[in-house]
Amino acid sequence: MSTTIKCGRPRKGEELLGRDRLLDTAVTLFLEHGFGNLSLETIAREARVSLRTIYRQFGGKAGLFGAAVRRCTDQFVACLSEEQALERPPEEVLVDFAKQFLYGLTRPHVMRIRAMLIGEALRFPDLAAQYYEQGPQHTLNQLAQFFARQPQTGPFAPIDPGFLAGQLLSALRGERFQKLQLGLETTPDEAEIDAWARQVVRLFLTGCLKPEITR
């Protein structure tokens, strides 16, 4: 009975599975140990990969953290694609985005990651930079592009797309999110997320639609 030995580079699907396993392991360990107390050697050992692999793919610990954040952010912004922007009513797209954004942002493990980041950002500026670039900045950019794609004959007043994106994100986070960060609110379920998202988007649109539409 012969045994076939696989050689060469792993297939793309296998690479993606390996990357996801590494990111999942890293997030679990970051939550358990924090950023400063966790070594890359520990991550590599638990994820069953080499240090060389981590450095080659992510450049180091901050890059690995940033990649985990980016994977989460990509789920928020998937509905803001060019096709979605032009084929669906803007309110529908923004409500879908708002629900995914709020659901992801309010999960207990994400809240813990944010708390860890705030506590360690001053000691590790590379960590803070990676988080902002791959998380908030990426979300802001994708949302601004969505507003920029809207036709001039569309419903929005001629307001800077970046400003619109920033205002919507600020409205979504709002006071309730601050209370969640402080442990003064319970994690919202899907029905609460839906109501939260629709209320914010409705109020936001009232402020940025063309005057003739708001009357």
Could you walk me through the main structural features you see in this protein, from its secondary elements to its overall organization?
It is a single chain. The chain has eleven helices and no strands. With 215 residues, the protein is mainly alpha-helical. It has a single domain (61-214), classed as Tetracycline Repressor, domain 2 (Orthogonal Bundle).
Keywords:
215 residues, mainly alpha, Tetracycline Repressor, domain 2, 11 helices
The gist of it:
This protein has 215 residues and is mainly alpha-helical. It has one domain: Tetracycline Repressor, domain 2, CATH 1.10.357.10. The chain has helices spanning 12-33, 40-47, 51-58, 61-77, 82-87, 90-105, 108-120, 125-149, 161-181, 190-208, 211-214.
Approximate helicity band: over 70%
Number of contiguous helices: 11
From N to C, what is the helix and strand string? HHHHHHHHHHH
**Total individual domains:** 1
Structural class: mainly alpha
Biggest sheet architecture: none
CATH topology: Tetracycline Repressor, domain 2
Unreliable residue runs = 1-10
Query: What is the CATH C-level name?
Result: Mainly Alpha
What would the principal axes of the Cα set say about the shape? globular
Strand content: under 5%
Looking at CATH, the homologous superfamily is Tetracycline Repressor, domain 2
CATH architecture annotation name: Orthogonal Bundle
| Gyration radius from CA atoms, angstroms | 20 Å
Count of individual beta strands: 0
- For the termini, the CA-CA separation is 80 Å
Mean pLDDT: 86
